[in-house]
Amino acid sequence: MTKQRKTSKSAASAASRVLKDGRTGKDSKKAAGSALSQTAPKKKK
User: How many C-beta atoms surround the C-beta of residue 24 within 10 A?
Assistant: First the structure.
């Protein structure tokens, strides 16, 4: 079973700035994209 995580608002903002900045490296963009791809666990009905 995997742990489901959600990216905090401040971390998402930082990751977004990294992706928009043309001066950042490939590895930085990869980490930022990974952070943004984490979603909240879905609630069961």
Answer: 14
